[in-house]
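User: Design a sequence. Structure:
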């Protein structure tokens, strides 16, 4: 009699246990925090990027997934994926922050300003493009146009 009762109780567990494990695993997804793997000095820029830029841009170091991962599901407001797109200079990133990107059509102007803009720009310059394919060019690569990764002087106001 006891084996029959145990068999009757075991059958629902075969369905409930995998569902429970799947639910627990799903709750762990997407829990990466902004700034994971980032130098302490860059934590502020990572958090600001996540708050102000993460809805449209992907950058794993800020734990954001705003860019389209499939061209067929891409929307007009999806920004570049900074895991693959390298931004080389503070000047360019600050320009984009102030002017609404490079087209001025989608990204809000002055989405981050002052010292916060500088922190975001430094973060993007330092951590963008880390998954981009390595390209061997005569000039030394994508960011070799005579600028360093620090790329120009950045001032909070202008």
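Assistant: Done.
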């Amino acid at each position: 009699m006891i084996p029959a009762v145990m068999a009757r109780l075991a059958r629902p567990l075969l369905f409930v246990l995998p569902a429970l494990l799947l639910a627990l695993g799903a709750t762990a997804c997407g829990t990466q925090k902004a700034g994971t793997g980032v130098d302490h000095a860059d934590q502020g820029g990572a958090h600001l990027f996540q708050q102000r830029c993460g809805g449209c841009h992907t950058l794993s170091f800020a734990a954001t997934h705003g860019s389209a991962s499939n061209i067929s599901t891409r929307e007009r407001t999806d920004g570049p994926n900074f895991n693959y797109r390298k931004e080389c200079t503070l000047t360019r990133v600050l320009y984009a922050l102030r002017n609404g990107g490079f087209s001025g059509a989608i990204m809000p102007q002055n989405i981050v300003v002052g010292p916060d803009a500088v922190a975001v720009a430094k973060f993007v310059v330092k951590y963008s493009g880390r998954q981009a394919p390595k390209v061997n060019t005569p000039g030394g690569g994508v960011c070799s146009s005579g600028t360093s990764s620090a790329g120009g002087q950045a001032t909070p106001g202008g």
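The chain has two domains: 1-30, 32-158. Residues 20-30, 145-158 have pLDDT under 50 and may be disordered.
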